[in-house]
Amino acid sequence: MNSIWPWSKKRTSDIVWIDLGDLGDLVHPNGPHEQWQDHGLGLLRTILHQNGIETDILSTRAITSWDQLARQLPGYRMALMNVRSYTFPVALKAARIFKEINPEGLVLAGGMHATVAPEEMAEVEAFDKICQGAGEEIILDLVRDPDSFPRVFRGQGARSMADWPAIDRELWPKPADWQGLLADLRPRQALSTWKLRRAFNWPLEPECGWGPPPVATVITSRVCPWQCVFCNEASYIPNMGRRPVAMVIDDLNELDEKYGVGSVVIHDSMFFQNPKWLQEWIEEYPRRANTVWPYWAAGRADTVRQWPDLFAALIRETNWKLISIGFESGSDRVLKLLNKECTEEDNYFAIDLLNRIGDEMEAEGKEPPIFWSNLMLGIPGETEEDAFKTMRMLKRMKRVFPSISYYAPYPGSALGFQLIAEGKSLMSTENYHRFPDDEKVKGVNYGFYRELLAGAYDAEVNRGLSPEERQRGYAGLYQQALAKA
Ligand code: B12
Ligand code: SF4
Predict the structure, then answer these.
(1) Residue range 15-183, CATH number
(2) Which tens digits make up the pLDDT trace of 280-297?
(3) Which of 34, 59, 112, 116 for mutating ligand 1's site (highest number of atoms within 8 Å of CB)?
């Protein structure tokens, strides 16, 4: 039996970037979304390597026990990590293990959690430097001379995403090594990891049902100007210029020439903003891209209503196949509570429009577009009738992948901060969101929601719906649609 894990990994540096996520996500993943790669890590490692600072990569997702991480850490003098609130528990543990093994070593942490909850980060001694905000303009100085920075400090971002280098995707972590697992007498894990490696398409990403593999994830814009109280990124991500259309297309063509692209996921919080950029995308993408790859991207119902022609043109001319809309709720009362600035009417407008475009495209023999419908349940203040309205709205969608989650009070968002301050958040440093049906807020009747998703209230939900609409969401579908949040 081999005692070093993972086997045959060569060291190139005494600096290591620790990719964060739940243990085992790159060994035997539960679902596709835990396998997406981290653009923050990719961008900053690319900058480091292009400037002569080599780093190794380890991933908590590619191991199944903390001991496996510990065995890989001796001898590193520096560890870097991108900490989001949902990876804070893992970051904390990894940082402590790193310091136990390398007491003289330094842990440099940045990311969303460092940005929105610096005091929670600062309580953890193992974090030596904590960078709030963007890191691309300071990462080189920080790694070269960490002592010149205070323990908690503000980073500096680029003015525009045009200044970002294209990510070197070979700097992203790989799924776990099946040969090593076999050598370590774990034949079952080795088999599932062998399958994962084959299907992963590293350094591109695996298929998740949104489009053909290999999948290329890209980011064209950094921030959304709206201020929904459960999110409001604008309050902590400074505005920055969008990546120019030509650069996005060049990046994709280059990836295609190197690795072959099957489809694209545009990971922007809000793709459907800035009509001028979108118009240029409509003109350029079909003309300049090696293939007009189908893609997944996000929008809002109110702007679909505001720019219906632009929306339709994007679908028809640029192959926008998976349309992610943050509908969140089917009730005006709740939409107001969320400061969503969308109404029930906006939501139904967007739904009916996409249903119609889909019908027309099907009649033309084309593959119709599909909603990726983001919905929240368990919002403080939501009544049972509000929740029925949300499920009723979902049934109006003809072609849909529902993504339903229990509202989660993340720090950074206005409502999250408020509920944390009131002591109502159930998300802790040990457990931000381990499982989809984790209870997130005190006082919310999760039993009701579980029954709702199991179909116990179908009579109420189906009230006023057409016979066809009633059939939608067969038993179990909505339960399965419950996502980690
Ligand atoms: C793409 C994305 C996803 C993707 C992919 C995630 C992934 N693997 O990266 C998917 C769809 C899977 C996803 C899922 C979720 N996400 Co998400 N996601 C994003 C999104 C839109 C972009 C992330 C990104 O790549 N940004 C660009 C990179 C370059 O930025 P960055 O990673 O922050 O890194 C920069 C800085 O933070 C800093 N930095 C980072 N690391 C370091 C390290 C050092 C040493 C230094 C100095 C600096 C530094 O420098 C970098 C360059 O400027 C963000 C919102 C946003 N606009 O950023 C939300 C966001 C990160 N997601 C969020 C959440 C809550 C989730 C979910 C829990 C569900 C949900 N409610 O949306 C799930 C959980 C996923 C899981 N694994 O379990 C929150 C996190 C909030 C928080 N307080 O941490 C955000 C901020 C959105 C929001 N407002 O709610 N997400
Ligand atoms: S929820 Fe969506 S629309 Fe609202 S602020 Fe966040 S990204 Fe923007």
Answers:
(1) 3.40.50.280
(2) 999 999 999 999 999 999
(3) 112
